[in-house]
Specification:
The complex is a heterodimer of chains A (about 230) and B (about 350). In chain A, about 70% of the residues lie in helices and about 0% in strands. With about 230 residues, chain A is mainly α. The termini of chain B are close together. The model of chain B has no long low-confidence stretch (mean pLDDT about 90). The chains are: A mainly alpha (about 230), B alpha/beta (about 350).
């Protein structure tokens, strides 16, 4: 606003042509200069007052929801990709001399395969048994986890409910806070009104009861005291 | 002739409500039948106002229905559906931006009001503004048959004494500054408080400020003003709230200067009222204020609070200047004499 003031070519006031604007303006400026000269007028304070903003009690609808992004991640949150466990098998085939050796060894292994199978049978059975046991253990764990899944789903619902409750509580508390601020203002207004009503009361009393009335009241009161 | 009026809201002391009553009084004196219909009105007005939904019983193509339009409401729909000859008196709609921080519902109604005004364009026989400023807005909205009807004002109601108690309380030699109007954001009451702070601090420590007007519905704005007053540690400010007519007149009569810093006015009735009661007026030049002042009083073109405070001091302490200003105000008042406004209204209605 002050910038506009200095830039605007419009006179500060507009009055009827019969009134001398310049005279008024010069009187105003003199008065301000006079006050400044007396050291009474502090420009910084005037600027501060001019720039003072009203601070309205906040509207509860403007309270930001701080919980939701944490509890319910938006699509922006990226999930890690599922990675399979992989083992690297030696390549049986090959080229050149190495390939040729591998082929020869392969043929030899085929010749001895029944013997190899006979020799590794116990290990094979043990491995088979271990894999079956491991599978069963995992399947049983999954079976047990079914119960936990229900528990987790329930918990998720409870968290949602808790979040809603917390959010509602914040809104309600904010409303209460606003109500409290409003009540404070209303109290202040009421205090002012009571003071005003008291002043009114005194003014009415002053109008109604003249000094002679009070003397009369005093005289009448004597016999009652006796 | 039957000439009825439609209002969105009727309340005692409100400029539109007062005007509706004055028009009704004038029309009845001219031998016309005239009733007031409103959407919202206080119970104690039920002997003067009828619910607008009951208008079907009164409706007739020969009737003239005058709609005081100032905000969006269901009354517009009703007004558009009746077969009567239609006139609107446009009192302007406060730009909704002023209300966003304080009253979302009213902000919405004001926004809708401007949309509804466009719907009325080809559906009314005559559109009157209560100022040239308002008439210009009507023309911009697309109305072709427009005119100006200065707010109907009966100043005779001011010819009464001061309420004795208020006289006892406030006629004590202190300078009383007055603002009259609703405590709503577009009136910029905070600027009045700031100017008064500087005036009281640097020019007249014994000064007192009356802020006379209703703040119901705008408690948050009122609370912010109270907070500002507290931060400034300001004394002798009286927020009276809604008061009876006799007390309002008393506050006028007890005041030495009327200060108005509003940034949006479609008319501003307290200015001619102050003119009538010989109170010098210092008002900020916004919207229709300049036109309402009609070359009377002092119009401030920039919000330099210190200069406004110094100006107030000058107007109050210089009797020659004060007299000159009062003379200009007295001349300006001629525009608002009841008979003239009533005649203008009848001229417009006779063209229908």
């Amino acid at each position: 606003m002050p910038d506009e003031k200095s830039q605007s070519p419009e006179p500060f006031i507009t009055v009827n042509n019969s009134i001398n604007v310049d005279e008024i303006m010069s009187a105003i400026q003199n008065r301000i200069r006079e006050k400044k000269g007396e050291g009474l007028l502090i420009q910084s304070e005037i600027d501060e007052v001019s720039d003072m903003e009203l601070l309205p009690i906040p509207d509860f609808l403007e309270i930001p929801n701080v919980y939701e992004p944490i509890l319910y991640p938006s699509s922006k949150v990226t999930k890690k990709e599922f990675k399979k466990f992989e083992i690297t098998l030696e390549n049986e085939n090959g080229s050149g001399l190495r390939g040729l050796i591998k082929k020869i060894l392969g043929i030899i292994r085929k010749i001895f395969f029944p013997l190899v199978r006979f020799m590794t049978r116990p290990l094979y059975n043990e491995l088979k048994q271990f894999t079956t046991d491991r599978y069963n253990a995992n399947a049983y764990e999954l079976y047990l986890l079914e119960d936990y899944k229900r528990l987790v789903d329930e918990s998720k619902e409870y968290i949602k409910l808790m979040h809603n409750t917390t959010n509602n509580l914040i809104v309600e508390i904010s409303k209460l806070k606003i109500d409290q601020e409003m009540m404070k203002t209303k109290m202040k207004v009421l205090e002012d009104k009571i003071e005003f009503v008291e002043n009114r009361e005194r003014a009415i009393e002053k109008k109604m009861f003249t000094p002679s009335d009070s003397t009369l009241i005093g005289q009448q009161a004597i016999p009652i005291d006796k | 002739m039957k000439i009825h009026q439609f209002l969105t809201s009727f309340s005692f002391g409100d400029a539109i409500g007062n005007e509706a009553l004055e028009i009704q009084h004038f029309l009845r004196n001219q031998g016309n039948e005239s009733e007031i219909f409103s959407f919202i009105y206080p119970p104690r007005a039920s002997n003067k106002v009828i619910n607008y939904l009951e208008y079907d019983r009164y409706s007739d193509p020969d009737n003239i229905l005058v709609f005081h339009f100032s905000i969006g409401s269901p009354v517009t729909d009703k007004f558009l559906t009746v077969p009567d000859r239609k006139v609107i008196i446009y009192h302007n709609i406060t730009p909704h931006e002023f209300y966003i921080d304080y009253h979302r519902v009213l902000a919405k109604d004001c926004y809708n009001g401007r949309l509804e005004l466009k719907r009325l364009v080809d559906n009314v026989d005559f559109a009157l503004g209560d100022s040239e400023y308002n008439e210009l807005e009507l023309k911009e909205a697309g109305f072709t048959r427009t005119g100006v009807l200065p707010l109907v004002m009966d100043f005779d109601k001011f010819n009464c004494g001061i309420v004795p108690v208020l006289k006892e309380l406030f006629m004590d030699g202190k300078t009383n500054i007055l603002y009259v109007g609703r405590i709503i954001p577009n009136k910029k009451v905070e600027d009045i408080v700031k100017v008064f702070y500087l005036y009281q601090k640097y020019f007249n420590p014994g000064a007192r400020l009356f802020i006379v007007g209703d703040y119901r519905g705008f408690e948050r704005y009122h609370a912010a003003l109270i907070d500002l007053v507290t931060r400034l540690n300001l004394k002798n400010i009286h927020f009276t709230g809604h008061i009876p007519g006799d007390e309002l007149i008393s506050y006028f009569k007890l005041s030495h200067l009327y200060l108005h810093m509003s940034e949006h006015e479609g008319f501003c009735a307290p200015i001619p009222e102050s003119f009538y009661l010989n109170i010098p007026v210092v008002a900020f030049n916004a919207a229709a204020v300049k036109e309402t002042m009609n070359n009377g009083g002092v119009l401030v073109n920039r919000k330099d609070f210190l200069q406004v405070a110094a100006l107030m001091d000058r107007v109050i302490t210089d009797p020659v200047l004060k007299d000159s200003i009062l003379r200009t105000q007295h001349a300006a008042l001629e525009k608002y004499r009841l008979n003239r406004t009533g005649k203008i209204l009848m001229d417009y209605l006779s063209k229908l």
